[in-house]
Every structure is written in structure tokens, then in C-alpha cells.
């Protein structure tokens, strides 16, 4: 059978599949229910018996197979006579000494380790006696074959506001960002994503194609119907401003809000800019709107017809794969198809955990400006739509179209990807931007390897190549002795922009260098391991790893497929001690968002960015003190401009020690030395595109903006039912440790001109205003006191009471350092039913009032939230919400990952009901 026939079968199956087959209930489902009943009551032998029956009827039932592995692990541990702490030790040894490509169940790990360490008498497996009906069903399956694996999910939701307004569809992930809405909307600090929408998703994967003679072929499709599948846009049109000038518009609509999206539009002549509002769409027509530009020009936008589009395919790829090669063609896919290179500088797909992939940026050609003065606005790689267009789960919706190839030999490895981005409103046949990356590695000796990396990005203007960036590098790694690895990389880039305009065409080039030395004690092989993958072994009493690194990037260097703006700095939540654990299971149920292990490596920045020289040292280790582990981390980086001027020195020390089984203590110290302030430039905030400091008129020169933090805390488990924790922090860090929130809200942008090589260029100039209330350098010190109390009278019920006193009254809702009192109650009367209650009293300055009048209104807020979940089985659940609880799936920049943030400050009188079903 040809590949065309295979694809045809996939398409036909996705179209004619009857709904009844999706929701069909088999006999195996009933047996699973019986088995789960035994399992939840602790009758593991009976549960094992029932799950085994399920496999007799349905041999590929993943749920039954998983529980069987778990039960065998428990029973094996019991037979071996292991205590709970011994089981935990086995698990810890496995985790510390083994690299895993994906999550592995705890009991599966225990089972594997017991099999490895304990001699087991092998017994012959008794023959399986099939029930006649089961044998008949299996025989029928063998005759008919099954070549497509179907999995999916269904979500149905609805909401009701206190105004008796029924909501059937309202969702926008951008409402979870702390942005301009806090200053300019009626909802203020109570802006949140209602996330009310329906969804049907079907994942199709080929299997058993060997029976058709297609052993090496495979395909995957993701068909999703939800509000983000329905979009639309107007025709392009040009409007003249009342005061002259003109602007070109193309209004973009999406169904999740029923409105057009808000965008920044630059005018055609005078270098002006304006922000389009969100315009309601009814009967495929927008309402008229009026917009005032930066230069106070007025643009009247008439009603426009929206041409709707429906695109339910989110992913589709076909691949050929054998033992060493894989060729994949993806006509449409998510950003995870972008190539992430493992060279020391990571020239492809480097970005922080909440950012979109740089592969999604599109080329925006430059424009002549008639002025006065006459000039030109440079072309840029624009990622504004890629950042903005996410669904309510935080999933990026800008697609990639392309192909990738992988060769995985014993000594030689090659990876290469070519792709073009497509935003939600882009025409599929429009290819104006391309990205490509290739990584070649070769092991010369068992301890010596060489690599070559190339990245390229190409942008077109009316089918003519307009912007081009190429970066190429060579790198090497060498382990002269066991436990010591030396790595180095040299890269060079060449970029040309606005090639279609001979007058304003620009060019730049530059180099980048990195050398690092990694050590491990006790000595163990580190040649194939990344620094973060080097861990302490279970049998080691002492452990130390270190990384010394020197890096430089010229101001003219550019690796177009990676961004270093966010990874160079510490994440705000890493500058505090926190004993709170993010209660993901309570808030997300069957939804599994990004976890802590996915983001913890981004906590501390490395200082590397364009136009910077960095020298850095990190030490991490553990040793025994009074037969107890003392864990520590020391990190320091010294950063200069490539011209030699000092930028910053950041040093930190983290210590953790458990004097007893019940007591955990932690210490955090940070010293952040900064260059003296420069007149009119903010010392901490910078433009994310250019990297330039943002204008701040109240900054005077010669002041010291340096920061320091000393913090100590403990968590004490008084009894099995009661524990409490406390943190004390003395700091003057009201900038980095708060993510510059809320002072960063007070921003705007104007237009200015610069001169380069005798040519005039127009560019936006972002600036801050109303900054005096937030304090100026040198920054005053203040104290933070945090307390938390946990009480669990029975396993099914837990209370958590916490409160914070912060002398910095402007500390906002992004984490639990805001002034507040909070109570959380979790109650799970049965394995299928759970309740969660949260009540918070907080106090904060009204930012909208401060922006409008300059008056500092320090007011109280009360927030009540209730959630209930009922699981029909492991694949379906009902969720009821009253209010907004403050926890969203990890995937946004504005919340801490520990669960202490408050998305809203006041009770939201909204009820939401969700039904989710997976099949």
C-alpha cells in the first residue's frame, strides 16, 4: 500500500468516525472500575487480579498495565520487607544516577531496582486459558487489523455571572498577564481569563504498518475544534488621519473573545503609532471605532467585514524512520518541532520557560518615513503575535511548516530542521519567513568530541529576500580525566537587513566565544552529561560539582533563532525562600501543565547576551554535618560591556540543612552590584527587542542602584498532623525580586529618530512615567515576614493558613510576598470527589487610582474561591468553580511557580462548570 493510501485512510477515519465510537463503553471499562475500587481501598492483590482480567480482554489497555506495574512494585517492596524510608532511598538512588527521557512512575522504579538488587527465582509462566468470547474478539482483531491509534478529549463548559449573564464562550490567555489593563480597564487588578470554552480534540497515530509492508513509515495528526480554530480577518485598508498621515489596517478576529485583537500599528508617513482596540464582531461585521495615535492624531476606523476561516488541524506530520535515520515532514505543527541545539551557546531555540520559540517570529519589512525628517523604520523580526496567541492552557498557536532530518550514528550525529512560521491569521500559502538550523557532532575519541552548528533566518518582502541572518560555529568538548570536562565554542554571524532598499540597507557582523570547565567530585564520567544532569549518587556522603565559564558576545553578533534577553537574568521567584508547594493536582485535575522540574534550571541567570563579556562560577554540593546532609549552592557572575564598561556583579549563596527528620532550614543571600545610574535611563528595565535601557526621566546620574538580600527560613513538622514554616527577608530589592511589578505597568512609547552612518532611522522609544512613588536609587531596605501553618487531622482533610507582612506596601499579587492573610482547605472525602476552598484578605495600593490622580490609596481586598471536582473515572471529571483562585497552569511570566500568587484580589462572582472526557 502506498503512502498516499495510508494518508487517505487517516483522513477518511477522521471524517467518518461515528461519535458513538468515541464514547463507547466496553466490558473492560467495567472491570477497570471494579479494580480501581479494590485499589483505592488497599486490596492490591484483588486489584491485580481484576486488572489482569482487563488485559485478557484488551491487551493494549495502558491504564491497566500502569496499575499492574504499580501494584507489583508495592507487593515487591512488602515481600522485601522494606520500610518507607528504604523505599524512598531506592527511589532517590535511581533518580540521582539515571538519565531518563520522560517521567517514570515511582512504583515502577522501585520494582525495577528490587529486581536488580534482589535475587528472584524465575518461574515458568503458566499458559493463558482464554474465555471463548474473549478468544473470538481477539481473533477478530487479528483478522481485521488496527492501523490507527485514536486518542482525544472533549471539554464542555459554561459560566454564570452575578448579573445573571450566561457565558458559553469567553477565553483569552492574555488576561492572565499583568499588563496595561490594570491601569486602563474597569476590572483593574481583577483581570483574569474566564477560560470558558468547548473543545473536541482527536489525536491520530499510525501503528502496525509493518503488516502493510510499511515498517519505517509513520504519521500523526491532531484535529482540534475549539474557539481558536475559528478566526477571521478583514481586507487590508488604509485610513487617513484627521491631522494628516495615514495607516494601513488589517483587523484580526478570533472566536474565543468574539472580538478583534489589539495591535500596535505604525503610520505610513510621519513615524507615528497607534494601538487598535478590541472591536466586537457581530454578523461578520466590526463596529466603527476611533483611535488616537501617539502624536495625538485621530483615526476613525469604519465598520469592516470579517472573512471567517476554520482550521481544525493543529498538527500533521509524516515520517520515515529506521535504526539510525529519521525524516519528518510537518505541513503544520506546534513549536516543539523547532530544533534545540546542544552546543554550549545553544544557538538555536534558546529562550526562557515562558517565552515563545524564536522560530515563530516573522519578518516585518522596513518602511520609508516621509517625516519630517525623512527617514526609515528598520525591518525587524516580529514575535508580538507569537507571544499573544495562546490558548487558555498556555499553548502557543503559531504553527511551523517544514521538515527535519536526524542521523544518529555511533560516533556521528546530525540534526537539521527547516521551517516557516504561520500565525493564526496568515494565509497557508504565504511563506515570507524561513528558519533553518543544523547540528553535526562527531566523537573523535571516547573522551574528545567536535561539533559544528549553523543557524539561518530569512525574511522576504514581496517575494524578494529582505532580511538575512547566518550564524555558524565550531565547538569541542574534552574529558582529560574522569570527572573533568572542558568545552569551548567559537561562533560568527553575518546579518543584512532591508536588502530591498539600497539607501537604507544595513549590515552587521560579530563573533561570540565561550569556554567552560566542569568538575565533579567524587570523580565520575561527565563527558555526555549537561551540567544540570550531574547529580549526587545515593551512596555518596559528599558531592561537589562546579562550573567555571567565560563568554563574550560582540554587539554585532546575532543568532537569530535564540534569544538571551530573559535567560541572562534571575527569575524573580528565585530571589526568595519559599516552602510552599504548588498544588497542581487541586487546580488542574486531568490537565498536566509544565512542572517544577521543567523550569527550575531557569531560576538563576548566566549573564550572557549580545554586547556582553561574562565570567561566572557556580559551585553546588552536599556534605554530611552531624550525619545530616548540608546542601549548598554558590553562584557568581561578573558582567561587562564588550567595550569593557562594568554592568553588574551578581553573587548568591543558598544553604539547606535538616538538623532532624522534622526540621528543614534554609538560607539565601544575594548581592547585586550595579553600575552607577545614568541620567534618564532606568537601571533595571530594558527593551526586550533592542536590549536598550528604557527611558526613566526621574533617574539622576551617579546614584548606586545595587541590591542586597538576606533571608532565612525553616519548616518544622511538629507532629504527623501539624507543621509550620516561617521566612524572614531583609532586602532592598524592589525591582528584580518583584519582576519590576507593579512599577513596570507605568510605561508608554513615543517615536524618535537616530542617525547611523549619516542616515536617519525612526524607532519607538519606550519610557516609564510616575516612578517617584516606587523609590529611587539608592533603594531603601525593608523587611518581609512570612508564616505558614499546615494542619491535617485526617488524610482526607488539610488546612493551610499563611500570612505575610511586607514593609514594601507596593508588593503586588505575583507571589505570596504581598501583604495578606490566607486560608486554604482541601477535602477529599472519596478518591473521586474533592473540594478546595481558599479565602484571602490582602492589602495593596490602587494602581489605577495612582495612575489617574497620583493618590496612593492603600486599600483592603477580600477574595473567596471554591472548587469541587468529581471524577467519574480516571478519564473523565466534572469541575465546578466559584470565583477565581489565583493558580493557573505554569506557562505565564507573571506568576510564581509555588502557588502563592493571587490572579485577582477581590471575589469574582462567577460560577463555572466544566466536563472533561478523555478517550
Structural class: mainly beta
The overall pLDDT average reads 87
- Overall shape: it is globular
Question: Would you count the extended β strands for me?
Answer: 47
| Straight-line N-to-C gap | 29 Å
Tally of DSSP helical segments? 13
Low-confidence stretches: 1-26, 93-144, 584-588
What percent of residues are in strands?
35-45%
Major sheet, described briefly? 26 strands, antiparallel, barrel
Word description of this protein:
- The strands form eight sheets. This protein has a 26-stranded antiparallel beta barrel.
- With 919 residues, it is mostly beta strands.
- Residues 1-26, 93-144 and 584-588 have low confidence and may be disordered.
- The protein is 14% helix and 42% strand.
- Among the domains are: 3-144, no CATH class; 782-908.
- Helix 4 (44-57) packs antiparallel against helix 5 and helix 5 packs across helix 7 (106-117).
Give descriptors for this structure.
single chain; 919 residues; mainly beta; 26-stranded antiparallel β-barrel; six-stranded mixed sheet; 13 helices; 47 strands; globular
Write the layout of secondary structure elements.
Blueprint: H1 3-16, H2 19-22, H3 27-40, H4 44-57, H5 62-80, H6 84-97, H7 106-117, H8 132-144, E1 148-161, E2 166-167, H9 181-184, E3 199-206, E4 217-225, E5 230-233, E6 237-240, E7 246-249, E8 252-254, E9 259-260, E10 264-266, E11 273-275, E12 281-282, E13 285-286, E14 289-292, E15 298-301, E16 307-310, E17 313-321, E18 325-333, E19 362-364, E20 367-369, E21 375-377, E22 380-382, H10 384-388, E23 399-408, E24 412-422, E25 433-445, E26 448-461, E27 464-481, E28 484-497, E29 506-521, E30 543-553, H11 584-588, H12 596-599, E31 612-625, E32 628-641, E33 646-657, E34 663-674, E35 681-686, E36 693-696, E37 707-717, E38 722-731, E39 747-756, E40 759-768, E41 782-794, E42 797-806, E43 820-827, E44 833-845, H13 847-853, E45 858-873, E46 876-882, E47 910-918
Parallel strand pairs: 21-40, 36-40
Antiparallel strand pairs: 1-2, 1-3, 1-47, 3-4, 4-17, 5-8, 5-16, 6-7, 8-9, 10-11, 12-13, 14-15, 17-18, 18-23, 19-22, 20-21, 23-24, 24-25, 25-26, 26-27, 27-28, 28-29, 29-30, 30-31, 31-32, 32-33, 33-34, 34-37, 35-36, 37-38, 38-41, 39-40, 41-42, 42-43, 43-44, 44-45, 45-46, 46-47
Helix pairs in contact: 3-4, 4-5, 5-7, 6-7
